[in-house]
Every structure is written in C-alpha cells, then in structure tokens.
Amino acid sequence: MMQITSTLGAAGNRCQFPAPAAFPGSAPGGTGFASACENRGVTVLSPELKLELPPLQLGPITVDTPVILAPMAGITNKAFRRLCREYGGGLYVTEMVTSRALVERSPESMRIIKHDDDEKVRSVQLYGVDPKTVGAAVRLLVEEDRADHIDLNFGCPVPKVTRKGGGSALPWKLDLFTAIVQTAVKEASRGNVPLTIKMRKGIDEDHLTFLDAGKIARDSGVAAVTLHGRTASQFYSGKADWSAIAELREALPDMNVLGNGDIWSAEDAIRMVRETGVDGVVIGRGCQGRPWLFGDLEAAFEGRTERHRPGLKQVSDSVYRHAELLVETFGDEVIALRDIRKHMAWYFKGYVVGGDLRAKLATVPSLTVLRELLDQLDPDVPYPGTDAEGPRGRAGTPKKTALPEGWLDGRELNAAQKSIISAAELDVSGG
C-alpha cells in the first residue's frame, strides 16, 4: 500500500518549521525553526480549535493528512509543489494538462506532468472533452508509469473552455460526462491508479449538475469527488456554498467527498469539515503566497494547535526559495523570474513594503537582483495579522457563462454539439 507520510508528522516534533532547505543560508542541521519561533513565526492557538480526521484513502493510496493542493494553471508546477511539501503533508496535484496535448506529447504537456523523484504520489490533473482522447491520455499515464493518481477537471469556469462545452459546462451533458468518466476509470484501473474528479455546483443556480455528476462518478468507480461550492457563472466571486458540499456528502455516503472553496486558513478547513462532514479539503487560492498553510492544515488535522505566523524575514526567505526552485524547474533563470513575479503581491499581502520596492519586485529580472531587493526589507517586521490573511487572487464578477449554442436545451449532445466539442481541447492552455 502506498502511503504519504507528512513532513512534520514524520519528524515527530510538535513545533517544527520547514526543513532547513526552505531557509537559504541556514546552517546544516537547521536553525530555521528556532529563528521562526523567536520571530513569532509560529503561534499556538486555543485547544478548542483542534480537529482529528482519519487519513484519506484513495484506492491503494493513503493520504495521512486529508488535504489536496488544487491544480492551478501557472501555479502548481513542480517548484511550488515542493515548496508546499516542505511545510506539510497532503496530496499535491500538477497544473491541468489537456488530454490531446498529452497524447501528442507536446513539450509543455510533458513538462507539466514531470515530478520530483521524491514526490511519493505523482498526481496529474487531466482536462478533456472527448472520451477517446481522455482514455488515451489516461492509458499513456498508466502504461508509462507517469502517475499514481489522476484527477479529471470538470470545474474550470474560463469562457474559452465553457463556450466549447468543456470544464464546468460539461457535466450538463450527462451522456458525455458519463462516457468520459467511465472510459477514464476503465483505463486507470488497468494500473490500479485511483481516479478522482473535481467539479462545480453547475452552470448557474438554475442549471445545477453536482448531484447527478456525483452519483454517476460513484457508480463508475471514481475514488473521490471534489466539489467547489460555486457555479461556473460565479467564477470566484461571492461566497462558496458549503451547504451544497454538505448536500453532496449526504447524497454519497458510500464514497469520498472533498470540499473546496473559501478555505483561507486551518480554521476555515476545520469549520468546513464540521459543517459538511467531508473526508478532506482541497486548497486552491488560499495557499497563493502562503505555502505554509499546509503546515497549519497538517497541525489542525493532527490535533495540534501551532499555526505559522511568519514575519517579513521568513516570507522573504520563502520567496527566494521559491525562485530558486523555479530556476531548477524551468532550467532558465529568465523564465523562472518572470514566473515568480505574479506571486509577489500574494506573498507580501498585508506586510509593510514600500510601493517602489513592490514595483521592483514585480519586475525582478534575476536571482541576484531578487536577493538585493529582499535584503532591503526590514527583517524584524512581525506577522501583520488579519491583513495578511483572507481572500487573495482575482475573484472576478458573476456573469453569464459562455456556452455552445443550444447547450441548455437538453441533457444530451446533439449532432451540432458533438462537432463543437471535438475541437474544444485545441484552444485550451495547459500543455
């Protein structure tokens, strides 16, 4: 049986910050956590916030900490996954890769599915609209031993995806959804690879799909279903509907149900579990600029009360570590530093950083310049509290979901719609 052992749990230490590698310049043997404690990097909260949750079982995989990193395009690459793993345990999923691009072995798709040698569970998320292509992509991953867990994307709300019937628009067509899921499960089962799906409530409040899709997934042999408590039309605006997650949990007592949406802290995760009864949580935007959230989640699910409250020194060290890992991932410093720029606002949210310095960080060209800029920060600035917490990233605004013509007229594909979705993967980023 494959088992993910959480970083902090394996150390057997109630009060431990990330491994020394997470702190550039720290001495061998690790003084990182001692410094973190001295600088209020970790806070112990009151006991009533404790929560114990059993490990998450996905086929032969045991996830000791029932937390999954949600696939995020341009975010959950190999570098970011490693950074998160250095803080806590869980299951860490790649960026979404399109089935067609993977079958065609495009260089970008092959980069996306690449894992570090020490990633104990190689998790890949696939997007597709054609059962045959999705099946071929799953077959490639299984036969070439490139994944231990596969997730299917049925939650993307981006217009260029939904207007061709993909992402969160797809479960509306029950025949297409069923064919894709059944084909993928069949191919994955050949290698005993658990397959899960991630979805939204539906297209909008008048066209909900999550209960039908969840039951189809269960009957098809899916190992777990993740529900993001928003519709496609909401994008990321408003509040996630946790009552829908609870409804799905109640409707599917015989399979794993995971909750996603508006988890910004370990306390949010605790509340979601208590309110919905889910078997685990899926973390998306909440960890942007806060990879230490996985340390907080691990502590919460192990019944410990420590929470990371990093001062500016620890944040800057994590930023530099992230940039170094990106250089290693892309093999190109220019590309890596271009990638780290989008993370700067997330990392320094709530911290006192001058406008001129923020602007320079957002256009940083090299590791050398990054080091110089970070050294200008006041290392004694403590954690700013609630200003550094809460929502991050673009929420967007509610809007009518872009769909193929006549998409909502029925729950099965017509001839015209079949021809539309046959080309749907061609214009989707992700490999």
Task: Describe the 3D structure.
This protein is of the alpha/beta class and about 425 residues long. Helices cover about 35% and strands about 15% of the residues. The protein has helices at about 5-10, 30-40, 80-85, 100-105, 105-110, 130-145, 160, 175-190, 210-220, 240-250, 265-275, 295-300, 310-330, 335-340, 345, 355-360, 365-375, 415-420; strands spanning about 1-5, 40-45, 55-60, 60-65, 65-70, 90-100, 125, 150-155, 195-200, 200-205, 205-210, 225-230, 255-260, 280-285, 305-310. The strands form 4 sheets. It has an 8-stranded parallel beta barrel with strand order 5-6-7-8-9-12-13-14, surrounded by 7 helices. A 3-stranded mixed beta sheet has the order 1-4-3, with no helix packed on it. Strands 2-15 form a two-stranded antiparallel ribbon. The longest helix has 19 residues, at about 310-330. It is globular and about 60 Å long.
Short description:
With 431 residues, the protein is α/β, with parallel strands linked by helices. Helices cover 37% and strands 14% of the residues. The longest helix is centred in the last third of the chain and has 19 residues, at 312-330.
Helix and strand topology:
Blueprint: E1 2-4, H1 7-11, H2 32-38, E2 42-44, E3 56-58, E4 61-63, E5 67-69, H3 78-85, E6 91-98, H4 99-103, H5 107-112, E7 123-127, H6 131-143, E8 149-154, H7 159-162, H8 174-189, E9 195-200, E10 202-204, E11 207-208, H9 210-220, E12 224-228, H10 242-251, E13 256-260, H11 266-276, E14 280-283, H12 293-301, E15 306-308, H13 312-330, H14 333-340, H15 344-347, H16 355-361, H17 367-374, H18 415-421
Parallel strand pairs: 1-4, 5-6, 5-14, 6-7, 7-8, 8-9, 9-12, 12-13, 13-14
Antiparallel strand pairs: 2-15, 3-4, 10-11
Helix pairs in contact: 3-13, 6-8, 8-9, 11-12, 13-14, 13-17
